[in-house]
Amino acid sequence: MHESILAMGLARDSEVVDALLEERFEIYIAGDEEEAAQYARSHPVDLLLMDLTGSAVPLTRLIRTVQREQKGRRFPVVVLTPSDMDLPVSRLFRAGANDVLKKPADTDELLARIRNLLSLFGLIEEQYGQTVTIADLDIEPKSRTVTRGGIPIELTAKEYDLLLYLARHVNQVCSREDILKYVWEFEFHMVTNVVDVYIRHLRKKVDRGFKQKLIHTVRGVGYIIKEGQ
């Protein structure tokens, strides 16, 4: 199967599109955010390519939309910018871009960067697809299943996302702000107890009935999964 690129802002008859097709990439050019969401809902996205010249959708919003429809599947983001753009490139990286090229982009360089990113993210995806084991807790990212001591644990989608985030930061304190940002994708400070509510749900399902408690509170900061007592 050829790598799939979801693009926005590119002209269908552009040199970039021709070069990607010649390299046997599958490319879908979305006309707006809804088209991008519809495509991402039913197709795997290996890379998101955005030309700021031809798109009115904010980069951060587009990335979030595609991420939501991809159900957590990771993909790199490449942004093409006009040569006279005043916006600092650093802002694009903070918004979620993995690489930024000014137009007119050299197609050979663009293809090389895309190949490098796909290779890197392929390794990351492979690593992220591996079973996460903490004590007798096993999390299977590919099937989104959880067991403890061999006993299946039924979690909601968001409970699973929260548990996996904590597990991938085992023995590290995760602040409520970071959890809101990376699990709920809230980029701003807001007064909410949603994290505390979901932690209570997880404790009932993951820790209740087991001598070793995995989920711990760090008062005034956040939460941590500890591998050992």
Question: Care to describe what's here?
Answer:
- The chain is of the alpha/beta class and 229 residues long.
- It has 2 domains: 4-121, Rossmann fold (3-Layer(aba) Sandwich); 132-225, Orthogonal Bundle (Arc Repressor Mutant, subunit A).
- Helices cover 39% and strands 21% of the residues.
- The strands form 3 sheets. A 5-stranded parallel sheet has the order 2-1-3-4-5, with helices on both faces. Strands 6-7-8-9 form a 4-stranded antiparallel sheet, covered by helices on one side. A 3-stranded antiparallel sheet has the order 10-12-11.
- Helix 2 (33-42) runs parallel beside helix 3.
- The longest helix is centred in the middle third of the chain and has 22 residues, at 107-128.
- The N and C termini lie far apart (46 Å).
- The mean pLDDT is 87.
- Tally of helical runs: 8
CATH superfamily of the largest domain: Response regulator
**Structural class designation:** alpha/beta
- Summarize the main sheet: 5 strands, parallel
What is the count of structural domains? 2
Brief overview, please?
The protein has about 230 residues and is of the alpha/beta class. It is built from eight helices and twelve strands.
